[in-house]
Amino acid sequence: MKGWPQFNPIQRHAGNACKLGLLTVSLLLAANSRAQTAVTGITYGTTVNSVDTSHGGLTFREQYTPVSTVATGLGDYQFTGPLASTVIVRRNTTEAGPNNTTVFYQTSASNSTAPLGQYESSVGNMFRSGNLYEGLRNPFANGAGAQNANIERIDFYYAGGYTVQANDALVFFDLENTGNMGDGFRIAAFTAVDGAGDLDPSVAGTPTTYANSGLMVAADSFTGGDLNSPSGGTMGNFERTTYTNGDNLSGTGSTTNIGNGLNLVGILIRFSDLGITAGTTIQGFSLMAGDTAPVSAASLVNWNNATYYPTNTDPTTYGNMDFMAFGAQVSRPVPEPSTYGAILLGLTGAFLGWRRRQYCPARM
Question: Which residues contact residue 83 at a Cβ distance below 8 angstroms, ignoring those fewer than 6 apart?
């Protein structure tokens, strides 16, 4: 039998191994609990190129290049979850300012008036399209500027509810000037619609209960760098068109070519980051300006309450989030099922526990 002087060095090494194992587990758990993670890459599918159409003085090339997967620090995600059945825009129509919508369209040249993407007749349809050739300019900005949409909230509704699976997530893209890493916004899940106290019974899917006050995504959180656009390359040519009939994009807008210098940046947010556990059924989620100031979940219900939904959101700060036409479809880890990650963590923990029993001596 070894004497204690001979055993002590072994004990010390075993203790260090135990600490290393516990540290490894801690790091794995910490990586799995971050509030959001940047998108670092996009893999596109095959481009669909339909016959050109003309609407409101613009000739749409009717192209759609689906996003197959995105790369993140949490692994690759694919878009195999449910698609929102309805996307509803909530404006504070009592405030002074235009009832406008300004859309970014990617074009093939800096002086073109031919958007590469598909024509969509409404803001809701545009979000549901998942088409990164287009997006909204300053949706949450208040005031008299023509590009300020005076939108207070955008609701993504899943008819009949949607039961969250482990690691289910949402992905959003912002159109930014080179070197900027995204603007701030708030996101919250809602669990009930069109019940007692409903603010708009004429529209199906109006939230009446939120799970909590939501997650604030800080500006410059999209730290994955500039991403390739559907047409290839990180920098694309764009024009913007302002429509003057609320969410209706079927009229003739005022179009301005803005050339190149704009880039995509992206972020992934898991439902667990929104305080929603796997197995919970929700009705959808809402996007709001970053200066939305709820004191409770109930604060988010009435978008016309200026106490919580400020009506002076600055177009250069929280009103400057330029959401691309994306985010309505739930994303899931590659490969599915999402439980693979949990299984791996469980096996890792079991192995480290076994190692500890083998090599970690009991304290004397």
Answer: 128, 328, 329, 330
Number of domain units in the chain: 1
Residue 325's domain comprises 35-359
For residues 304 and 212, what is the distance between their CA atoms, to the nearest angstrom?
19
Q: What is the pLDDT of residues 44-87, one digit of tens each?
A: 999 999 999 999 999 999 999 999 999 999 999 999 999 999 99
Mean pLDDT of 303-327: 92
Query: What pTM did the predictor assign?
Result: 0.82
Other beta carbons within 10 angstroms of residue 314's beta carbon come to 17
How many CA atoms are closer than 13 Å to the CA of 190, on its beta-carbon side? 28
Q: Token match 């099922």: residue?
A: 337
Closest by Cα among 42, 314, 294 to 184:
314
Residues 6+ apart with CB under 8 A from 250: 55, 56, 121, 122
Q: Please choose, from the candidates 286, 268, 300, the residue with its C-alpha nearest in 3D space to the C-alpha of residue 81.
A: 268
Write out the H or E segment, with its range, that includes residue 8.
helix 4-31
Which amino acid type is present at position 45? G
Instruction: Measure CA 84 to chain center.
Output: 13
Strands (E), 218-345: 236-243, 254-270, 281-289, 332-333
Both structure tokens of 220: 């410059």
281 found inside a domain: yes
Residue 19 lies in a domain: no
Does residue 342 fall inside a structural domain? yes
Rounded Cα–Cα distance for residues 288 and 139 (Å): 9
Residue 308 CB neighbours (<10 A): 21
Where is pLDDT greater, at 12 or 119?
119
Distance CA 101, CA 114 (A): 19
